[in-house]
Design goal:
Chain lengths: 244, 263
């Protein structure tokens, strides 16, 4: 009990550390540059505390429940050698973690409300929710696909730079066909997907797989899954924009 | 009262968000591995924390990070503020007049990346795997400079309204050239560092900043110009880390040839 309280406290300190530079920089700018009264300071502070508490709870819970099972599964599947189950696992892992990714939930909702106020979609709550949901599912599918590709790459020993470069060439080509209003959202979704939930589990899968295969360097082969997970959402959202 | 109802609604919603990954991990554990979970209670408690935490975080986000990003964008592009700092009215403004925006963007990008716990963890790992060739602080500074430059340049793009994919295409062209010449060990690390450096807290703030700028700067649309800051914040650390790798390789070679001369 005492140990877990300490762990929870550590997580709170860490999320405070995430927020602290933002508070300091904005504080300095407010005091020295803008020099105007800030409205609703109380709500801002209360919200900030909720962010810290929420993030601390979230990461503490992840460490208690998700990470041990996820890492254990990733390791045992990687060493068991059933390629089929490994692929299924990789896809579901990418998909499931992305659906639960907080930054993506927030940004998809924001993108949907911006699209609604610009009359790209109907300005009703249903249409906004649908759009945000569609966006999140597209990105989640993309990350699932990225992990399949990444696992294949580690097994087959394909060159990472070549695949990444090819991917970005495709991004640039597709950008010419996509409607301009989706391009910004598409590019951003690449960076949004890879944070709190996805990175630790995906890294565990990659490093576990690379260490279980003969003649692979975990440093060279284990990393790089994240790189795929930030590339494919751009492609998928661009295609989503072209199709929808 | 409204806040409490909101919070409960968000917590309910986050239960649905966590459901797929939870269900799939349980099913896999039973069907494929065929082992029963031993620490059953710990896992249930953990999931409850995940759901409550996600709900709280999302409420706090809407109360704080989004409004703060918007507020900063509004105040730094306010006609009165700009008149005071550059002495011109808003119809005559050029992109240089928004210098406070660039400075703010650079500081936010740099400081959040420097403090990012997952970047610290990656740097320590990279340092031990590379046998000390990659410095912990050096890597963190490289990534932070990359994020700062990225967010700042992204704001310049929003203010001028230049097409996003030109910048991205040019950026990746640089990455491609660097990838061909940089030391091999640093490449996967560089590509991953782009995603790692933008944390869950930074992304919403930066997104709101971009949208706020696009709404306030004359002639820009939030939908077309407002997004893209996160993409910039992910691209430039890759360039920065690759450059860092190239510079350390160069220094390495220099000191080796210098010590040969001495012999």
């Amino acid at each position: 009990m005492k140990a877990s309280l300490q762990a929870l406290f550590r997580d709170a300190v860490n999320s405070l550390r995430d927020l602290l530079p933002i508070v300091i920089v904005i504080g300095v700018f407010q005091l020295l540059v803008i020099r105007q009264p800030v409205e609703g300071l109380v709500t801002l502070v209360a919200g900030g505390l909720m962010v810290v508490a929420g993030l601390a709870f979230f990461i503490f819970g992840l460490r208690l429940a998700l990470f041990p099972i996820g890492e254990g599964l990733a390791n045992s599947l990687a060493t068991k050698g059933s390629v089929f189950w490994l692929i299924v696992f990789a896809f579901l892992l990418g998909f499931g973690t992305t659906v639960a990714e907080p930054a993506l939930i927030a940004v998809a909702a924001e993108a949907a409300s911006v699209a609604a106020s610009a009359d790209v979609i109907a300005n009703t709550q249903d249409a906004i929710d649908d759009y945000a949901f569609g966006l999140r599912m597209t990105v989640a599918l993309a990350v699932g696909f990225a992990l399949i590709l990444g696992v294949f790459r580690i097994i087959a020993d394909w060159s990472l730079p070549m695949l990444i470069i090819g991917g970005y060439v495709l991004v640039v080509v597709l950008s010419n066909f996509a409607p301009p209003e989706i391009i910004g959202i598409a590019y951003d979704s690449g960076g949004v997907t890879t944070s709190t939930v996805t990175v630790p589990l995906v890294t565990a899968l990659g490093v576990g797989l690379a260490s279980s295969l003969k003649g692979r360097n975990p440093m060279l082969d284990g990393f790089g899954l994240i790189a795929f997970a930030s590339l494919t959402p751009i492609l998928f959202v661009l295609v989503y924009g072209i199709v929808v | 009262m409204e806040l409490v109802v909101d919070t409960l609604k968000f917590i309910g919603g986050s239960a649905l968000d966590v459901l797929p990954i939870a269900a799939f991990l349980f099913i896999f554990q039973w069907l494929v591995i065929g082992e029963k979970m031993s620490n059953y209670r710990q896992i249930v408690v953990g999931f409850i924390f995940v759901v409550i935490g996600l709900g709280l975080f999302l409420v706090g986000l809407e109360q704080t990070l989004f409004p703060l990003g918007r507020l900063m964008a509004e105040q730094l592009t306010d006609p009165g503020f700009l008149f005071e700092s550059v002495g011109r009215v808003s119809s005559e403004l050029t992109w240089q007049d928004y210098y406070w925006v660039y400075l703010f963007a650079a500081t936010i990008g740099f400081s959040t990346a420097m403090a990012e716990p997952s970047l610290i963890a990656v740097s320590i790992k990279a340092n031990s795997v590379s046998g000390g060739a990659i410095g912990i602080v050096g890597l963190r500074v490289a990534v932070a400079i990359g994020v700062g430059v990225g967010v700042s340049l992204g704001c310049y793009r929003i203010i001028t309204g230049l097409p996003l994919h030109y910048f991205i295409a040019a950026g990746y062209l640089v990455v491609i050239v660097q990838t061909m010449t940089a030391p091999k060990l640093i490449i996967p690390l560089a590509f991953d560092s782009g995603g790692v450096s933008t944390s869950t807290v930074t992304v919403p703030l930066v997104t709101a900043l971009g949208l706020g700028l696009a709404e306030r700067v004359p002639g820009r649309s939030a939908l077309i110009d407002g997004f893209g800051l996160v993409a910039f914040a992910c691209l430039f650390p890759i360039i920065a880390v690759l450059t860092y790798g190239q510079l350390s390789a160069l220094r390495d070679r220099r000191s080796k040839s210098a010590s040969r001369k001495q012999e």
